[in-house]
User: What shape does this take?
Amino acid sequence: MTHNYQQQADLIHQTFGIPVAVFGMTDQPIYSKGNAGHRSLTLIAIEIASDWKDPYFGAVPYLEAMRSLDQITDNYYEDSADEIVRYFLANANTWRGETARAVKAELKTILKGVK
Assistant: This one.
């Protein structure tokens, strides 16, 4: 699975209706605003929502929370982002396929970096 700026810009436009301009940068993923070394959790959530057409009801609240998170060190009200991601993964067993495997592995890698 290859991520690039144009694909991510298209996902943002599709999901939120916000046009995103991309100027010549098409081979690197868009990373979080805080340079945490990973893609924004918002972008990951957008990718999940675009691939997982009928998500398991238990994963939905965590997927929605991830849409408003940037870094794994952020908070969503009283919950930490790493808790949100862990709960999402625990409820994402029915999401399958190449994209699911790649994104779940990406999220697990991000979680390994949490202190």
DSSP finds five helices and two strands in the chain. The radius of gyration is 14 Å. The first strand starts at residue 75 and ends at 76.
